[in-house]
Each structure stands twice: as structure tokens, then as C-alpha cells.
Specification:
The complex is a heterodimer. Chain A has 21 helices and no strands. Chain A is mainly α. Chain A folds into 2 domains: about 220 residues, no CATH class; about 230 residues, no CATH class. Chain A is globular and about 75 Å long. In chain A, about 45% of the residues are buried. Chain B has a single domain, classed as Rossmann fold (3-Layer(aba) Sandwich). Chain B has a 6-stranded mixed β-sheet with strand order 6-7-8-3-9-10, with helices on both faces. Chain B has a 4-stranded antiparallel β-sheet with strand order 2-1-4-5, covered by helices on one side. The chains are: A mainly alpha, B alpha/beta. The interface between A and B is large, with 45 and 42 residues.
């Protein structure tokens, strides 16, 4: 059997050759080039900062490093151990080593847009912390931190995957997770956030970066060496945890597939019946259920913990909506699986199928956005102005519409087969997901900035007035997707794609 | 006494062509199946059987040719065709996280069926799926999935029953139940088209057999003539 790196190379080549849709490979290459360019810009921005801004940025550096650490742990937990290069069900006949799975997940960490955004922020911070000194040494420390914490996060995620293979393990993980969450909420509620930050190891990391920039080589070497040691431990622990999880006989996922579900009453119309089936398809998929809960609860909790000001709350709906759209929206027809062939043979107006998917996606995204906005604003200081309230409402509606319109357009143009039956199944291949996340996050971020500016101009009517043409634009995009779907050839292509295999 | 016009067969396919880009999957397929008749579509893997079935079910648009089902043209009146067709796809064909009962509920709603529950229960019992009626289908074995696909195809008593590989991986009791519903459909005046690579079962299920190779009909005969060693020899000669 070949080594893990050779296996990983083979899987990456396979994935590359599988990306046959027009523009996908070019998009991935351009995306990587764009990221490199943004990193250069972020690093270069240091010289343009004035002294007070620079001081604030440096003061916030330990929090930013801690934030990256939290994300590096949470992201693979939501993905059930990290992103797969090739879906596991397609590899069952091959002797793929656990280390290959683990390294694949590490390599695909940048497929998570939030991870990339945080990496850009850390790159900029590294440049600020080492301004006038050695950027290379500071960058090495930051890079060691990014790699170490990402490896530790994925190792932890694989451990949780393994523990959750049994009923007792799932209960233990749920209790531990709940207790940790409650502790975080209480710590934030009673003002211990600052104390936690004071004892955060990221202070030492930041000190190491600064030492690298200032030429204090001993301190830099100790910090960087410690991080490399953590990285080594993370890699070994990850490989062991991955092997243990994958080899553990368990009942995860089988319970819901073998237990009867409650029989519901028939719906009054064909559309409602299709909506009921789609809704059940979402909530009965372990990966979608877990992802939905995380995206609905976590951003709001973080925002509440940080007591985000009302102005910043205008940006939050965009972040949450983009995340919720990635759950299943970017490949909405995959909910039907191989049943799409049978469904296409039934007598019905085909527009009902896409309408049902649109409704279920809209309610999912909107629910996540509202939950995050409400919970996130609980600790926002002071009372919001009417302008801020109208901007948050407008942002929630427009970002939901933007994500639904973009997701449906992608679903019609680029359908994929996705099982979504297991806890680690993804709705689309990693490259497609990364591109889709950019396509949804960029416009929603722009909407947030635009509505923030409108709220700042004054007059509560401005954000709502701006929302009208944006909503109309989304409606137009949705209409185009539905029109495209009405073409029997397009429908047949979608059915073939989602039911393949 | 003036001669009476013969009724149009329920399924008429003329010069059916299906291309996938530069690949011709079906090339010049002709077939007619009358009321109360059953035809087996046999051939090797990749002969074009499933593609043909998908076109006849209204799932895949044909590149060329003409198909009429129950007097409706499939190109201009696909919805009416789907109304009279019952289709069991070749693989899967089930919504993974929906239960059999939810599949039946959805089919009944989209087909505008009333008082369907008793027939649904009866079919689930006949195909030994009553105990699994409220379990999601992603947990089903291959055989169970096949049986449910047949149930969904015959549920509304279609005029044209299209069964694509209905016996694949199905146990003997499931095979008997499928043969019984094929017979019941014929008795009720439906046309039945069964696509399979299992020659013995094709002979048991159907009166006629059509052999496909490379997307074209290369032979047609009464199904009984393909039975036994002599039939198998003749069949092999046609498909190789």
C-alpha cells in the first residue's frame, strides 16, 4: 500500500479530473490567485495605517488569534472531522489510510471561507505586529500557529466523530458540549471574558510574533518551537484519532434510518406536499441538522459574547445567510437524490419542485438569520436608533434573498450527486463549495456595508428604500432560475446529475 | 359489416433517437405495445434499455423520433403522458430521507388520487413492506428499494407500466409479487414494458421480447422462444 502523501496526491488528481464543469477549474485557479493577491494586500496595508489604528489593531491581536483558534476547532467539528477530498462512500473499495483522510482535511481547510478571511486578518496583524522589523520571522510564527491550531482542531473533531459512534458517546459529547457552551455564556454574562483573554495562550503567540519582528531571537525561537511541537502533536493525534474513528464499529446514523418516523397527515396541495418532503429531507440529514443548528446558534452567541455594537449587527445577517445557504441551498435538488428520477415521472407542474426547494431554503436561511440577529443583539450596548433597526431588518431580508437567489442559480447550473445520509456527507465537492461560498459571501458582505452606510446617512427609510431594488434584483434572478428549470433538457440534466451513482 | 378501426396501441415509439453529446445511446428505436400486452426489453449493459425507458416515462427528452402514450404525444403533452404512466427506474428511484408512506402520499397528491390509502396498504403488504412503511428509504436494502419502486409504479393502476430492472436483487417472494402485479396490470388492460437483463424472468413476465443492442432493436420474438437452452443460444447470438 502506498504512503499517505502518495494516496493524497492520487485523490487530489482524481478530484481535479472530476471537476469537469465549464469554468470550475479556472475558477479554482483564479480563486487561489485572488487569495494570494489579497494576502499581499493585507500585508502591505500595514504601512498605510495611522498610529492610533495600528495601536488598536495590536491591542486586539490576542483576541483575533484566539478567534482563529476557536474557528479552527469549530469548523471541522461542524464538518464531522474536516472536508473530504473524495466522498467516503466512493472510497470504500480502496485501502485509503487514515492519515490520507486526515491530511486531506488539513489541506482543504482553506475551502472554508471564514477560515480564509481569518487567515487574511492574521496576515495583516502579523504585518502590523512586525512593522519596521523582520516580517519573515513573525510570519513564520503566525504560520506555525495557524497550522498547529488547525491540526489540533481537526484532531479534536475526529475524536468527537469517534466518540459519537455510540449512543453513550453521543450523550457524553452532548453533555460536554452543552456544559462548555453554558460555561461560555455564563463567563460572558458575568464579565469574565477579559479574564479569559488575559490567560489565553494567544498572548504568548502574539508576543512571539512581536519578538520575531524586533529581532529577539531567543523568545521568537522558543515560541515558534513550541508551536511546531504542538503542530507535531496535533498531526500525530489527528492521524490516531482519525484511524480510531474510522475503524470504530458504531451505530451513528443508523438509528434514524432504521427507526420509524411519525406519520404526518397529507397536505392540502401539491406544493405543500413537496415542501413537507423537502423539509423532512433537510432535517433528517445529520450533516444538515448539525450545520443548521451551528449556523443559527453560534454567530449569535459570539456576537452576544462580544457585545457587538448595533451598527455592526447590520453585517451579521449577511454572514449567517451565506453560511446557511451553503448547508444545502447550493445543491438544492440533491435533496431528492435518486428519487429525482421517479419524481420527474409524476404528473405535475415542474415549477412546483423548484418552488418547494425555494420555500424550504428561504425559511431555513431566514430562520437562521432571525435567530442570530435576535440572540446576537441581546447584549448590544444601548438602544438601537430607528435607522439601525430598519437597516438590520433590511439586511436580514435582502441577504436572505441574495443567498436564496444565488443558491438556486448555482443549483440549476451545477447540480451534483450528494447522499447526505451520513454525518460527514457534504452537499457538494470542496472546490464547488468554496466557489459557492465566495459567490454568496461577497454580495451579502457588500449588502451589509451598503446598508450600514445608508443607516449612517440618516433617516430610517433609507435602508428600507435601498432594500426594494435589491429585493427586486433577487426576484429577477430567481425568476431566471425558474425559467431555466422549466426547460426539459435542463431538468433532465439536473435529474441525471443528482441521481447518478 | 364495415371494418372497425383497430384501437391505437397504448405505446407507440417511432424512430426514437437519444444522443448524449456525440454518443448515440438510442438510435432508431421502434416499438408498439397494445392494451393487455407485455413486452420484455432485453439486452446487455449499455444497450440503451434504461435510456429508452426514461424517455418513455417522460423523464428524458428524446433527441428525435416520436412517442405516443395513451394517445398523447410525449413532446407536446408530457404531463398527460406522465398521468397514464407508472415507472420504476433502474436504480434507486427513491427520495432517500422520505418514508414509503410519504412517497405514496406525494404520488397520490400529484396524481390527484382520492381514497388511495387502502390500495397503498394492500400493496405494501403484498410486497412485504408494511412493517417498513414509516422508515426512511436510505436505510433500505437494495431489494427493499426495488420492491418499493415497483409499488410506486403500479400504485395508480397506470395504462402503461414501465418496469426497469424490477427483479434486480429481489428475493423470490418479491419476484413473485412483481410477476403478480404485471399479470394484474395486463388483466386490467394496461400495456407493460419490462426492461431486464435476466432472461428467465423476462420470459416469465412477458409475452413478447425485444432485443436491444447499441441502442437499436436487433430482434423481436415471442418471449417463450427465448426460453430454455435454445432460447438462450439464440439470445446470445443476437447480443454478441
Amino acid at each position: 500500500m502506498t504512503g499517505p502523501l502518495a494516496q493524497l496526491w492520487a485523490l487530489l488528481l482524481l478530484r481535479w479530473h472530476m471537476a469537469r464543469q465549464p469554468g470550475l477549474r479556472l475558477g479554482m485557479v483564479l480563486g487561489a490567485a485572488f487569495l494570494a493577491w489579497v494576502l499581499v494586500l493585507a500585508v502591505g496595508s500595514a504601512s498605510a495605517l495611522d498610529a492610533p489604528t495600528l495601536a488598536t489593531a495590536i491591542e486586539l491581536a490576542p483576541s483575533a488569534y484566539l478567534g482563529f483558534g476557536l474557528l479552527a476547532v469549530i469548523a471541522p467539528l461542524t464538518a464531522g472531522g474536516g472536508t473530504d477530498v473524495v466522498p467516503p462512500d466512493q472510497l470504500v473499495a480502496y485501502p485509503v489510510r487514515p492519515a490520507t483522510h486526515f491530511f486531506g482535511g488539513l489541506l482543504l481547510a482553506p475551502a472554508n471561507l471564514v477560515w480564509v478571511v481569518q487567515l487574511v486578518a492574521l496576515s495583516a496583524l502579523t504585518a502590523y505586529l512586525t512593522l519596521g522589523g523582520s516580517l519573515a520571522l513573525g510570519a513564520l510564527t503566525s504560520m506555525a500557529y495557524v497550522l498547529a491550531i488547525t491540526a489540533i482542531g481537526q484532531a479534536l473533531a475526529w475524536l468527537v466523530v469517534g466518540l459519537r459512534q455510540t449512543r453513550r458517546g453521543r450523550r457524553g459529547v452532548a453533555i460536554s458540549g452543552g456544559a462548555l457552551l453554558a460555561a461560555c455564556v455564563l463567563a460572558v454574562r458575568y464579565g469574565y471574558g477579559g479574564t479569559i483573554l488575559d490567560v489565553s495562550p494567544t498572548r504568548s503567540v502574539v508576543a512571539g510574533v512581536i519578538a520575531g519582528g524586533a529581532g529577539e531571537q531567543l523568545r521568537w525561537a522558543v515560541t515558534t518551537g513550541a508551536l511546531l511541537l504542538v503542530l507535531s502533536v496535533g498531526l500525530v493525534a489527528g492521524i490516531v484519532a482519525c484511524g480510531w474513528s474510522l475503524g470504530r464499529p458504531g451505530d451513528a446514523g443508523t438509528g434514524r434510518r432504521t427507526q420509524p418516523v411519525r406519520r404526518r397527515s397529507p397536505r392540502r396541495s401539491a406544493l405543500r406536499e413537496l415542501v413537507a418532503v423537502d423539509r423532512a429531507s433537510v432535517w433528517r440529514a445529520p450533516a444538515l441538522r448539525r450545520g443548521g443548528l451551528v449556523i443559527a446558534v453560534l454567530p449569535g452567541l459570539v456576537a452576544a459574547g462580544a457585545a457587538v455594537p448595533w451598527n455592526s449587527m447590520i453585517i451579521l445577517p449577511g454572514l449567517v445567510a451565506a453560511g446557511a445557504g451553503l448547508l444545502f441551498g447550493v445543491n438544492a435538488f440533491s435533496l431528492d437524490g435518486s428519487g429525482a428520477v421517479w419524481l420527474a415521472s409524476l404528473p405535475h407542474d415542474p415549477r412546483l419542485v423548484i418552488r418547494a426547494k425555494t420555500l424550504v431554503l428561504t425559511e431555513t436561511v431566514l430562520a437562521a438569520v432571525v435567530l442570530a440577529a435576535v440572540s446576537g443583539s441581546l447584549r448590544s450596548p444601548g438602544t438601537p436608533t430607528p435607522e439601525q433597526v430598519s437597516a438590520i431588518v433590511a439586511s436580514s431580508l435582502v441577504c436572505t434573498a441574495v443567498v436564496v437567489a444565488a443558491a438556486l442559480a448555482i443549483s440549476v447550473r451545477r447540480p451534483h450527486r450528494a447522499d447526505l445520509n451520513g454525518p460527514r456527507d457534504a452537499v457538494a465537492p470542496p472546490g464547488a463549495l468554496a466557489l459557492a461560498s465566495v459567490r454568496m459571501a461577497a454580495p451579502t458582505a457588500a449588502v451589509g456595508v451598503l446598508l450600514s452606510a445608508a443607516a449612517a446617512v440618516g433617516g430610517w427609510g433609507w435602508p428600507l428604500a435601498l432594500a426594494v431594488p435589491l429585493l427586486l434584483g433577487c426576484g429577477l434572478s430567481l425568476h431566471r432560475s425558474m425559467k431555466r428549470y422549466a426547460d426539459p433538457l435542463v431538468r433532465a440534466r439536473i435529474v441525471q446529475a443528482v441521481s447518478a451513482g | 359489416m364495415p371494418p372497425t378501426a383497430l384501437p391505437e396501441p397504448i405505446l407507440v415509439a417511432e424512430d426514437l433517437v437519444v444522443d448524449f453529446g456525440s454518443v448515440r445511446a438510442v438510435g432508431g428505436f421502434d416499438l408498439s405495445v397494445g392494451a393487455g400486452s407485455s413486452v420484455a426489453l432485453v439486452g446487455r449493459n449499455g444497450a440503451g434499455k434504461s435510456t429508452t425507458m426514461r424517455v418513455l416515462a417522460g423523464v428524458l427528452p428524446a433527441t428525435g423520433g416520436r412517442v405516443r402514450v395513451g394517445g398523447h404525444d410525449i413532446r407536446s403533452d408530457a404531463a398527460a403522458v406522465r398521468g397514464v404512466v407508472g415507472y420504476c427506474p433502474d436504480v434507486g428511484g427513491l427520495i432517500p430521507r422520505a418514508t414509503p408512506w410519504e412517497h405514496l402520499q406525494l404520488a397520490a397528491r400529484l396524481r390527484g388520487m382520492r381514497a388511495w390509502q387502502d390500495r397503498a396498504r394492500g400493496l405494501l403488504v403484498d410486497f412485504d413492506l408494511d412493517a417498513a412503511a414509516d422508515r426512511v428509504t436510505s436505510g433500505f436494502s437494495h431489494g427493499m428499494s426495488r420492491r418499493l419502486s415497483v409499488v410506486l409504479a403500479v400504485f395508480h393502476e397506470p395504462r402503461l407500466l414501465l418496469l426497469d430492472e424490477p427483479f434486480d436483487g429481489v428475493d423470490p417472494l418479491g419476484v413473485d409479487a412483481t410477476l403478480a402485479v404485471v399479470q394484474a396490470a395486463r388483466d386490467a388492460g394496461a400495456a407493460v414494458l419490462v426492461s431486464t437483463h435476466l432472461l428467465e424472468l423476462a420470459v416469465r413476465a412477458c409475452q413478447e421480447a425485444v432485443v436491444l443492442k447499441g441502442g437499436r432493436v436487433v430482434g423481436a420474438a415471442p418471449a417463450a422462444e427465448l426460453a430454455g437452452e435454445a432460447g438462450r443460444t439464440r439470445y446470445r447470438a443476437l447480443i454478441t
